Amino acid sequence: VCTGIAFALHAYTNEGDNILIQNPVYNPFRTVIEEANRTLVMQDLLGNEQEGYTIDFDALESAFKDDDIKVFLFCSPQNPTGRVWHRDELAKVVALCKQYDVLLFSDEIHRDLIMPGHEHIAIGNIDPDFDNYVLFASPSKTFNLAGFNHSFMVVPRADLREKLDTFLHAIHVTGGQPAGYIASEAAYTYGSEWVENVNQVIWDNYQLLKTTVQTALPQVQFSDLQGTYLAWLDLGAYVKNADLKEVVQDRARLGVNYGTTYWPTRPEDTHIRINLATKTEIIETAANNLVKAIQEWQ
């Protein structure tokens, strides 16, 4: 998907163009923009674990209006916070993109990994009159097929498709490996049972991690997991940013991602991101190790 985003940036924008993202967000969003020599514009989501994360629509409109934003690179479902955006939120995003003629890139790679009580809505299903978008997704996350290096883009506008095709032909990218097409087709045709089962594993692992940690350490804040396979939690009540790696990595022996990776505008951030897509016994060990390490640190 990041390769597709890079292709689209080169096909649709010029060097120096302003590209907007919202932190905290998957860190290659920044690097793919910077490596394309486009100008990175960053905003923060509103809220926190207790209130829930939301989009600052006033700031979004202000940027669209005043900062000459060419592309809004949007994460749906949101990584790392786990938000699954509601229809009314997506409708506001679409309306603002229409009003200010901003091209919307919607990264929906976690679209199949949705937790109970939530529904992912593709950006193309919001407004039938809105076609100024490119949707990016892949079977790689859902079906563990990342090794095939396959993803797909939905490009409804004919002129945008033509621009993309022209760029891809110019760099001699005319297709992917046959095995990847076969794997993707098989996954989407026959993989519904897999998706149901893997979502249940993710949900159970999230509940186990959250219950184990908060029972012992009640001030650890967990973001509400609505989608993705990633737990986003704040250890700041017990561990300072400067001590996170010693506690989490050296003492708890966990390989996690740290909040500053996704939230560079907050250098003292104390979040960690934990991958839940694994065996339950691994999550149980991780939770117990984290609790023990923090208690001993205290």
What structural class do the secondary elements suggest? alpha/beta
Give me the CATH fold name of the largest domain: Aspartate Aminotransferase, domain 2
Question: What's the total count of β strands?
Answer: 12
Radius of gyration using CA atoms only: 20 Å
Task: Determine and state the CATH class of the largest domain.
Answer: Alpha Beta
Distance between the termini: 41 Å
Strand order of the largest sheet: 2-1-5-6-7-8
Fourth-tier CATH superfamily name of the largest domain: Type I PLP-dependent aspartate aminotransferase-like (Major domain)
Shape assignment: globular
CATH architecture of the largest domain: 3-Layer(aba) Sandwich
What's the pLDDT, averaged over the residues?
97
Low-confidence stretches: none
- Percent of residues in helices comes to 40-55%
Domain unit count:
2
What string gives the helices and strands in order?
HEHEEEHEHEEHEHHHEEHEHEH
Number of helices: 11
| Main sheet specs | 6 strands, mixed
The amount of beta strand, in percent, is 15-25%
Name a few traits of the molecule.
298 residues; alpha/beta; Aspartate Aminotransferase, domain 2; Aspartate Aminotransferase, domain 1; six-stranded mixed sheet; four-stranded antiparallel sheet; 12 strands
